[in-house]
Design goal:
By secondary structure, this protein is an alpha/beta fold. It is about 30% helix and about 20% strand. It comes from Amycolatopsis decaplanina DSM 44594. InterPro entries: LACTB2_WH, Metallo-B-lactamas, RibonucZ/Hydroxyglut_hydro, Sec-metab_biosynth-thioest, WH-like_DNA-bd_sf.
């Protein structure tokens, strides 16, 4: 795998470019993908997920040209923290599903279509990673935030919500390019969503099996030590969050 191109705006599709923030970690992979969307002939762009309040990164992002709108896929700091600074620098409003993140604009609504930057952007509410997670569909591509990553699987807050969101994404046309919040772009987002759904169902079966051995009242940590025994222990903490969501799902009265 080639080294990440930090600080360089990389064209990915005819209407989408990415600026990779230098904030690599086990949670952010190579770093946060800040997406710059611009239709043919448009004078301004849409910036999705400016990232942390990383002034060097945000300044480079501002230098990509005029910005008409800033969109946040969800509230986590590695996507949203820098939005207020960037909004002031770019002179553009911020919109998100969570009204508290908005600056000079209304909260996003599921199914809403936004015409901006020479593009039509359709909003999909895709909770699961967080309650306020959204995806944006435009021009045969979809920006997924942390709902689907370019590599690996995402940490979950609510499994029932997440399974419903995956089923929504599976309905996308084949060949829809996935532009994730972390990691490389994906050639067929619907196919990846199907793989995620299969993976989650397999994990649920593993958790059910672990509970048969450990007992119905097993803690998330105990389940992680069984189900994720072959995974680097450095990843057990985020795995514990996902297992907690799986246990909540399995223990709910009306699980899927």
């Amino acid at each position: 795998m080639s080294a990440p191109a930090y600080g360089v705006l990389r064209q990915v599709t005819p209407t989408a470019s990415v600026l990779l923030e230098h904030n690599p970690s086990s949670m952010t992979l190579e770093g946060t993908n800040s997406w710059v969307l611009r239709g043919a002939g448009a004078s301004g762009s849409v910036v999705v997920d400016p990232g942390h309040e990383d002034i060097e990164h945000l300044t480079l992002l501002a230098e990509t040209g005029a910005v008409e709108l800033i969109v946040l896929t969800h509230h986590h700091p590695d996507h949203a923290e820098g939005a207020p600074w960037f909004a002031e620098r770019a002179g553009a409003p911020v919109r998100a599903f969570d009204e508290s993140l908005c600056i000079g604009g209304k909260s996003l609504v599921d199914g809403e279509v936004i015409e901006v930057g020479g593009l039509r952007l359709s909003v999909l509410h895709t909770p699961g990673h967080t309650g306020d997670s959204i995806c944006l569909v435009s021009e045969g591509q979809i920006l997924t935030g942390d709902t689907i990553l370019g590599r690996g699987t995402t940490v979950l807050h609510d499994l029932g919500d997440y399974l419903r969101s995956l089923r929504k994404l599976i309905g996308l046309p084949g060949g829809t390019t996935g532009l994730p919040g972390h990691g490389p772009e994906l050639p067929d987002l619907a196919a990846t969503a199907r793989e995620y759904l299969t993976h989650r169902e397999e994990r649920l079966d593993q958790v059910r099996s672990a509970l048969e051995t450990l007992g119905a009242d097993a803690t998330p940590r105990q389940v992680v030590e069984v189900v994720y025994a072959d995974v680097d222990q450095a990843l057990w903490a985020p795995a514990e969050w996902s297992v907690r969501a799986q246990l909540d799902y399995l223990r709910s009265e009306d699980g899927e």
